Backbone:
């Protein structure tokens, strides 16, 4: 029974992880940019949810839309104004650039909101229900469902909309897409915006679960890395599977090794995967 | 053993796709052999397996009497098996001379920098790039880069040279120059395998031609054997044309 | 034409140093000097794998922290300081060789991430293995029984020796087959193998060279500051700063990382002292400016002025003959 409960906790956490990682994975896959800013984008989404709750009494579930739109705009501008200028440059350039931007953004968040941990305390939480001796915290369950729903929404956007098809075309063959009339820099900016949007949405949902602080950004970035390597790069389904897998692994790792080692387990796993199975558990190619 | 290179039962699969299927082939010293086949026939895969880029799924490659399949590319290169790439692969930030010094240094194991430079210069003069030695490789025209590829492989002191579509993208005048160069290389005693999907290029260079189709060898023989081979015509032009051609020839014979 | 560049630069550097000697009574300057020398070691070491071979390594913190802990633990056991530094160098080099064999088949971002994460894992190990490392409480080093001034000078000159070794290593690599091979690998790895470069061996050697002096510098740092803790010596910034320094001066050149390290130190001192609250943001802005306005580093900028830029790489090769 204990194991079932832990499996459940892991899945609840994993849904949120999938939502954190899917935008990161999209940007990496389409733009070949590792967005070091991603963790801070998530944190920013959490703060938006926090202040919407604090000042307006808005439930974080509703802030998802606000945080998502705000982060989309920020991401779009960052890509259009800065990263687009170095898209052809070697890996190191974009990596170092987003790292520099991350230092700037995270430091700004720190100055604006301080390092103190804040949290959303709802007046009327939904509480939890017991199903077959399993305790199911309803808020978390809903957060996970919303997270997976948003991830699925991204999938629909990518596969059904005109913009989404253009993004997929750019991912497959940039030159060919450009020849077919796709405005590649604009698609880059939109893709990066969508990645940031997912980060912001994930951040809103996380406001219910984790204390909020700028110091969390590294952890979220680490989670995004591991989920991408676990699930394979650039696919929404991969991010979902990788996120759920990481959540479960972390929950059991916390039980057997200790809760403080959650991220370490994930990192060790990441190195082992890169070394021995650089195609992800979904078996997608693209690591070498 | 009179063969320099012997390929036996060579296969290579990528997942479910069989890119090379049980291919047998030999090269004798001093020969100029053509390897042809439609696009996607497995020609470049064959070169990649022989030069160690991919390990074979089955079969063996013997060079100078010793097994070389499964060796790493740099070892095979050092043994004297050189190749040029279909898509030219210069070191873009280096000068033309430095590009050719690389194989002279590493594959031909030049004892010092002066020797490597001398060998590189000789190869560049041979292909007619002597004047461009100081230019950056990225500044060359396509024809120039193709010649640079040839110079790079010549600086390796190759025993066998595999030329992967050296003529692709060149205009007829440039092709004539390239063919002339290849003849000169052959005259030095280098064994050459020319990979082409254009038949007419290999016709006037090669004594013997091997045809690949869907990864398998479908024909081998002299130029005139090959042009009359029904399988080859089918592979290149499809069934209907082959039948029509056969009928036409049949009528002509009557 | 640039045949005399090496002796002239080294000579100038030596003269400058001697000129600085009277100033070295000042402990602040000594501290800066030691820091500058350490940055030179880190940037020059990274240059071997990141600059010449073009592999975006973020493993510097792993090598640095490993060296620091090796040195600290050995000194705690009573091993003499110089021996501890030497052993730390060897341990870091062996670690890099083993790690390199595991992760150097990865390319681009994947290599960058794998190398970055190694330091995080070592950090966790150092934090958890309390019996050996003191865990999160950190580790104190034995007190050296010489005057404070003499200590400051000792550590400055020792670090300077490491920096000089790193500089010599860069010259040696650049002038050797190894350096030529690594530059081939940076520009086209597959084609390198095809012209006979043993790419795996060369990359592992390059990665090992990028670790050996960093490990020693880590141990020296531990001796210098007397106290180390995991987040200090395994900091992500230790991996990132050398990259920024090398890019600032010009990656893949011998003197670029030195220029970058000194400039970086100067900026760090000016910005950090005046803007304590926003020093991370300031570093971020420096990085962004660097990427947009100095993509090839300062040396690249100077070369651009010289329209015979194409000849620049050939100089290093010609130097090989001499």
Residues:
């Amino acid at each position: 029974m204990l194991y079932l409960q832990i499996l459940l906790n892991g899945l609840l956490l994993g849904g949120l992880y999938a939502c954190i990682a899917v935008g990161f994975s999209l940007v990496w896959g389409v733009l070949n940019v590792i967005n070091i800013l991603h963790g801070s984008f998530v944190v920013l989404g959490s703060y938006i949810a926090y202040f919407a709750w604090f000042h307006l009494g808005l439930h974080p579930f509703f802030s998802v839309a606000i945080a998502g739109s705000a982060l989309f705009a920020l991401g779009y501008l960052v890509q259009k104004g800065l990263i687009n200028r170095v898209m052809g440059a070697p890996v190191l350039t974009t990596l170092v650039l987003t790292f520099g931007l991350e230092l700037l953004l995270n430091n700004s968040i720190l100055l604006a909101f301080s390092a103190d941990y804040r949290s959303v305390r709802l007046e009327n939480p939904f509480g939890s229900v017991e199903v077959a001796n399993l305790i199911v915290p309803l808020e978390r369950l809903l957060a996970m469902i919303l997270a997976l729903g948003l991830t699925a929404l991204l999938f629909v956007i990518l596969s059904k909309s005109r913009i989404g098809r253009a993004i997929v075309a750019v991912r497959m063959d940039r030159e060919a897409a450009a020849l077919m009339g796709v405005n590649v820099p604009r698609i880059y900016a939109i893709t990066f915006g969508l990645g940031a949007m997912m980060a912001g949405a994930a951040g809103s949902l996380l406001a219910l679960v984790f204390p909020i602080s700028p110091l969390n950004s590294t952890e979220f970035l680490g989670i995004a890395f591991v989920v991408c390597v676990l699930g394979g790069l650039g696919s929404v389904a991969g991010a979902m599977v990788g996120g759920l897998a990481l959540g479960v692994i972390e929950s059991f790792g916390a039980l057997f090794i200790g809760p403080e080692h959650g991220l370490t387990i994930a990192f060790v796993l990441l190195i082992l995967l890169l070394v021995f199975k650089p195609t992800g558990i979904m078996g997608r190619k693209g690591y070498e | 053993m009179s063969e320099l290179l012997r390929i036996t039962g060579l296969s290579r699969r990528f997942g479910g796709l069989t890119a090379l299927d049980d291919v047998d082939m030999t090269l004798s010293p001093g020969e100029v052999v053509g390897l042809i086949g439609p696009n996607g026939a497995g020609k470049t895969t064959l070169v990649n397996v022989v030069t160690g880029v991919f390990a074979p799924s089955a079969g063996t490659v013997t060079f100078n009497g010793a097994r070389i399949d499964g060796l790493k590319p740099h070892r095979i290169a050092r043994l004297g098996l050189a190749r040029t790439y279909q898509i030219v692969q210069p070191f873009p930030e280096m000068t033309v001379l430095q590009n050719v010094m690389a194989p002279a240094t590493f594959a031909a194991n030049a004892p010092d920098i002066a020797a490597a430079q001398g060998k590189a210069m000789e190869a560049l003069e041979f292909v007619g790039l002597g004047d461009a030695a100081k230019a950056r490789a990225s500044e060359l025209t396509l024809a120039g880069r193709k010649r640079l590829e040839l110079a790079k492989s010549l600086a390796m002191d190759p025993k066998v040279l595999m030329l992967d579509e050296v003529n692709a993208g060149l205009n007829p005048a440039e092709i004539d120059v390239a063919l002339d160069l290849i003849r000169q290389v052959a005259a030095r005693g280098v064994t050459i395998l020319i990979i082409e999907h254009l038949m007419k290029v290999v016709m006037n260079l090669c004594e013997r031609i091997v045809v690949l189709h869907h990864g398998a060898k479908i024909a081998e023989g002299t130029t005139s054997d090959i042009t009359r081979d029904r399988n080859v015509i089918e592979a290149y032009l499809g069934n209907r044309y082959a039948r029509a051609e056969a009928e036409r020839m049949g009528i002509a014979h009557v | 034409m640039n045949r005399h560049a090496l002796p002239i630069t080294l000579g100038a550097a030596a003269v400058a140093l001697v000129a600085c000697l009277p100033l070295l009574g000042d402990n602040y300057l000594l501290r800066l000097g030691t820091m500058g020398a350490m940055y030179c070691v880190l940037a020059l070491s990274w240059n071997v794998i990141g600059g010449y071979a073009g592999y975006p390594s973020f493993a510097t913190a792993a090598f640095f922290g490993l060296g620091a802990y090796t040195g600290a633990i050995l000194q705690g056991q009573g091993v003499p300081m110089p021996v501890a530094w030497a052993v730390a160098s060897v341990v870091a080099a062996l670690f890099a060789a083993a790690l390199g064999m595991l992760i150097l088949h990865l390319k681009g971002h994947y290599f960058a991430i794998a190398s970055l994460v190694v330091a995080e894992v070592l950090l966790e190990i150092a934090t958890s293995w309390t019996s050996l490392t003191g865990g999160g409480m950190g580790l104190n080093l034995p007190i050296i029984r010489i005057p404070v001034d003499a200590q400051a000078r000792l550590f400055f000159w020792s670090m300077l020796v490491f920096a000089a070794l790193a500089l010599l290593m860069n010259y040696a690599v650049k002038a050797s087959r190894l350096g030529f091979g690594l530059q081939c690998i940076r520009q086209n790895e597959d084609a390198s193998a095809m012209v006979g470069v043993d790419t795996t061996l060369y990359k592992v050697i390059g990665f090992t060279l990028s670790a050996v002096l960093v490990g020693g510098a880590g141990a020296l740092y531990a001796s210098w500051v007397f106290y180390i803790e995991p987040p200090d010596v395994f900091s992500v910034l230790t991996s990132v700063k050398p990259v920024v320094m090398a890019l600032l001066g010009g990656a893949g050149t011998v003197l670029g990382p030195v220029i970058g390290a000194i400039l970086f130190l100067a900026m760090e001192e000016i910005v950090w002292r005046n803007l304590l609250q926003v020093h991370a943001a300031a570093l971020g802005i420096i990085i962004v400016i660097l990427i947009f306005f100095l993509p090839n580093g300062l040396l690249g900028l100077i070369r651009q002025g010289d329209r015979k830029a194409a000849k620049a790489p050939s100089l290093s090769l010609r130097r090989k003959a001499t």
Summary: Residues 148-174 of chain C form the longest helix (27 residues). Confidence is low (pLDDT under 50) at residues 307-322 of chain C. Chain C has 16 helices and two strands.
